[in-house]
Every structure is written in structure tokens, then in C-alpha cells.
Amino acid sequence: MTMQGLGQRIGFWIGAAAFIALAFAMALVIRNEYVFFAGFVILQFIVLATAWNILGGYAGYVNFGTSAFFGVGVYTAVFLLKAVDAPLWIQILVAAIVGAALGLGVGLLTLRLRGIFFSIATVAITIIAETLITNWKFVGGATGVQLLRPPVTPPFDSYIKMLFVIAAVMVVIAVALARHVQNSGIGRGLRAIRDDEIAAECSGVPTLNLKLVACALSGALMCAAGAPSAMYLQFADPVSAFNLNYSVSALAMSLIGGTSHWIGPVLGAILLATTQQLLTVTISSEVNVLVLGVMLVLFVVVAPEGIIGLVRRVWRLVRRGTP
User: Is 244 exposed, middle or buried (0-12, 13-18, 19+ CB in 10 A)?
Assistant: First the structure.
């Protein structure tokens, strides 16, 4: 590893530690509960967008199955809570394991498909998963299930603040994993698949194995992101847990931020999720889909490489104009 690479790694982990420390300090100082209700959603979407980008951005396989993995994460937590009264960290850990296994299984069934055929198959996964949960009475079935939060753990004075800090930790884990994949041989192989999969296969790149790894990692993060939502809402039902809005939002956030770098989905999720939360408070939650569509079309037309591509373009113009 070069000195520059070592410096970037140290800088990343210093920034990650500062981010978690800031989230923890906010939970201890700020009294307005809505900050944490909105903040949790924003952090959750950062994890989802980052997870989507591992397969959809790096490998170029457009995945509409985010809502399936998210919903499975929600109901994994519900099942563990009802069956064995498992604590939240166990719910998240088991959801990640289930998500990785589900991602591997789905990958084996669908990753031999390419282009629009793969995308359609991932939509079908959501429909199948929602139908199974709808008919599973133990976790509430079609009517949903009401959940009671356990006593809050000190030093937090409310459960939502604890969820906010947990979400911040999950963001660091997701981004660190995406960053590692991008800078490793896995990331280089996935980019080769995205550029030309047939040429990558001819060059000896183990394309199917790399896609399965990406699918498993992406699925694990998506399911883990869904697990705390059961306690966040204190309610779970199939319609909301498997809402296709999660799939569309994760895709849009990655495209808006830029899929070529791990920071892209983070920027896109912050921009879009923050905008949606502000609109929910000031106007109505019904306009969120409209805003999402308008911003996605705007960025596809004006900045097809997302915020990252736009910044790079401006930087090149600035350097070109510098004497």
C-alpha cells in the first residue's frame, strides 16, 4: 500500500469515528425528537443506496429488488422478536445473514439474465416475498402486527435516539464495505463486467462468482437496513415493508449521486432523502414521488454521471481556465 493510500484509509476512519461521535453527541444534546425521526430515515437510505450501488453501480446490474430485501429484513426482526424476544443487535445481525443468503440464492437464479430481463426478475422477487409474508399469520399476515419497544438503554433517554445512533454505525459499516469493494480486486472485476461482460469473461474474470459476491453483500446490507424499521415504526405490514418506493429511491439516489464512486450514493441519499423529509413537513408526503422523478430526469439529462460527474466536469473547466 502506498503512503497516499494509507493516508486516505486513515483519513476515512478518522472521519467515520467523528461521524459516529457527532451522532452520539446529537442524541445526548438535542431534545427535539423529530430530528432523530427524520435523521434515521436519511441514514437508512444512505445504507440502502450504498448497498444498491455495489451490484447496480459497480457491476451495472440494475436491481429493482431493494424493497424485497428491505421487507425481508423487517420481517426477520419481527419474527425474532415474537419468537425469542431477541434484542435489536441480534435482529440486525440475523437479518444481515438472511439477506446474504437470500442475495446468494437470488443471484444464482437471476444473474445469468442480463439487462432488462434481470431487472424484471428482481421485481418478481419482491412480489413473491410480499405474497409469502401476507399469508404468514405468525408475523401478522396481511393485517400487520403491532410491536412494543423494550425499555431504552442508557445513556439514551428515548428509543428513537438509540436507533439514530445505530443507523449511523450501520452507515459507516456500509460505506466502509462499499469503499473496500471499490478499491479491491472485486471492484475492478465488477467494473470490467459493467464495461463489457463478454470481454471480461474472455479475459479470465470469474464473472458469475463476482456477481454472486456483490449480490450477497448488497442483500446483507439491505436486509440489515430494514431490521430496525420494525421498532422505528412499532408496526409492520407487508404493503409498507415491501413498498417499491424503496427500490426506486435507492436506484435514484445512486444515479443522482453517481455510481462510479462510493461517495456518490451517499451524496445522492443525503440530497434526496433530506429534500423528501423537508417536503413531508412543509407540504405533503404525496409530492415525494414527484420530486424524486423530477430530480432523476433532471440529473439524467444535465448530469448523467451524477453529482460526482458534475463536480469532475466543473473541476476540469476550472483547471483548464487556470493559467
Answer: middle
Q: Is residue 217 part of a domain?
A: yes
Does 9 map to a domain? no
CA distance to 41, 60, 103, 152, 184, per residue, from 149 (Å): 18, 40, 29, 8, 40
pTM: 0.92
Instruction: State yes or no: pLDDT of 128 exceeds 80.
Output: yes
Distance CA 269, CA 251 (A): 10
**Is residue 76 within 8 Å of residue 227, measured between CB atoms?**
yes
- What is 165-198 written as a DSSP string? HHHHHHHHHHHHHHHHHHHSHHHHHHHHHHH-HH
**Domain contains 249:** yes
Could you give the number of structural domains in the chain? 1
